[in-house]
Amino acid sequence: MDLRSRLNEALKTAMKEKQADRLSTLRLINAAIKDREIALRGEGEDAGEVGDDAILSILGKMVKQRQESARAYEEGGRLELAEKELEEIKVIQEFLPKKLSDKEVEEAVNGAIKEVGASSIRDMGKVMGVLKAKYTGQMDFGVVGPMVKSRLG
Length: 153
Hints:
single chain, Arc Repressor Mutant, subunit A, 7 helices, 0% strand, globular
């Protein structure tokens, strides 16, 4: 079952079971996907649906936004709002692939470096491109970037 179908099934289930908070988060996900489709149509690209890769990218960004918001709420003493953000993250993460362990991330980075034959920092973009193509949603690229840079530098 593709990601969009899983999201729609989860949405229907949340409606039937009257899970208001979960339903709200799932609707936000659907709205973000629709926004991406509309933006692509505006750019004159294929007016079809966005694929799983694009949806994973959207979900990853949504998690990152909520992590930043939760941190800001905690710093501001608004713990109830931080908790709400963290609950939304849990719902979104249900649809993301399992995060790779530190060891798996290291192996993936080494594999990508070998795959593109990277030898200097100039090859960093190629390495990151390979990693993003294969591991979107499975690793934090904010952490992986410096790791790649140190290996190539």
